[in-house]
Design a protein that fits this description.
2 copies of one chain form a homodimer. Chain A is of the alpha/beta class. The first copy, chain A, contains 11 helices and 7 strands. The first copy, chain A, has a domain of 186 residues: 3-Layer(aba) Sandwich (Rossmann fold), CATH 3.40.50. Helices cover 55% and strands 10% of the residues of chain A. Chains A and B meet through α2, α3 and α11 of A and α2, α3 and α11 of B.
Chain lengths: 267, 267
């Protein structure tokens, strides 16, 4: 088997390969689920379509998300295998800046995985990790996967929940419970994206650090100002912009792509 | 861990979950690589965008592909872990109908995986499987992954090569060697899709059975007729159509998606 490092210097999409290797490593460490690798691939495709950089309209969502978390009485960050593998440090920083709790919440739950994720978060500086083992003793209604299990000291009582890389079921259920749900999802058409209160359509690799920066900038703002940012935010606009953006990119890429053939026509 | 079968009846995209489970099973059997799971996820995203059914323009590519394989002097079907896991029976049928050789060709090559894939193909009825172990003694130029290794009795001397789920490097290299390359790739913008002679933009799950049916229908056609089909085929048109199709679907899905909010406005 050839080391990916050997092909990186020649590969046109080296960064994307590095992230892939990181997830594969964390699969072997018991942090990432096999289905998490497939989910990552879906994200890669959408990231490719949006151009692998944060869209302008996404910055609006990030600002609204920071403001929602800073205003929250009890904000909670939900963490799964992929996010722990990719952005553990930023998750912990965000929890500090916004005074949020961190809770492990998995589709494929096993105590080993929960503990592996907890270890990574603690190594990144987390002092408390909710939702591990017996602690996830509560259930949220109408969710049929293991994602229904939540910590009474975490997601259950939260008013604002950040759910990076979420499934649609739970986003809907959390909204029905009256919570503000902030999703990070690269697919603007997914149920998660559509049902969240605030949808950050971006790669977690870029979105989490941006969210930390924004929260740091805004942490001393007055509540009035924070409220204003949130009330002016329009998630439908963000979703619509992302789709327009992809449509435009596809047309551009198509034109660019077809230039390959101009000097070297093939049949 | 919850069995996927339990959520299938309630999940809006059950078929997609079944395929995922099949690939995960074949990862555990040593057939599919971890990177193959991520690659499958990318395919899922594009399949979702094209609407999870074969596009009209794709049928033209399938017809051209069948005609190219039936006309070929030495057609070869290149098989990797994902295709062996998902469509082994159809690969073997296609080889029979078009009188093609079957060769294992992997990005992450190991004798164990090659043998595991060979076993699956043999169980599906293959009498000969090229490219396993020492048999892959030749190299194709300008490919830096393990995919450069080919069988002198297979891809090296082929005039037509079917490469389902390919990487861009090798497609380019095979084209430069003067071969007709038929790719099956869900991403119309990938290098593979762009460099192939004939690009079938479809899920292998649907494309392979369709290709078998088409080859069966055409196997008794006169060479003149087969040549005509191929010479009239325009791959640029197929690629352009796929992108237009996705653009249209995105706009439609966006409109449909946003209807969710009509009765139940959220902020």
């Amino acid at each position: 088997m050839m080391k990916v490092s050997k092909v990186l210097h020649v590969h046109p999409r080296a960064e994307s390969l590095r992230i892939r290797e990181k997830l594969i490593k964390h699969y072997r460490l018991g942090v990432v689920a096999l289905a998490g690798l497939i989910a990552h691939g879906r994200g890669e495709a959408f990231d490719y379509l949006i151009g692998e950089k944060t869209m302008k309209s996404t910055f609006k969502a990030i600002k609204a998300a920071a403001s929602a978390m800073l205003q929250a009485k009890y904000p909670v960050i939900s963490v799964n295998g992929n996010t722990a593998a990719l952005v553990a440090n930023d998750l912990v920083k965000l929890a500090e800046v916004t005074n949020a709790k961190i809770e492990v919440n998995l589709f494929y739950r096993s105590l080993e995985r929960e503990l592996a994720i907890k270890r990574i978060l603690e190594a990144a500086g987390a002092r408390e990790v909710l939702g591990v083992g017996e602690a996830a003793s509560a259930q949220i209604p109408e969710v049929c996967s293991e994602r229904r299990r939540v910590d009474p000291q975490g997601i259950l009582r939260a008013d604002v929940v950040l759910v990076p890389l979420e499934d649609g079921d739970r986003t809907q259920a959390l909204r029905k419970m009256g919570k503000i749900v902030i999703a990070i999802d690269l697919n603007p058409l997914s149920r998660t994206a559509q049902y969240a209160s605030i949808t950050i359509i971006d790669n977690v690799i870029r979105a989490l650090p941006a969210l930390v920066r924004e929260a740091e900038k805004m942490r001393n703002e007055e509540t009035e100002k924070l409220r204003e940012i949130l009330s002016e935010f329009n998630n439908r606009e963000v979703l619509a912009n992302a789709i327009k953006h992809i449509n435009l990119r596809l047309s551009e890429l198509a034109q660019k792509g077809f230039h390959i053939f101009e000097d070297n026509e093939t049949s």
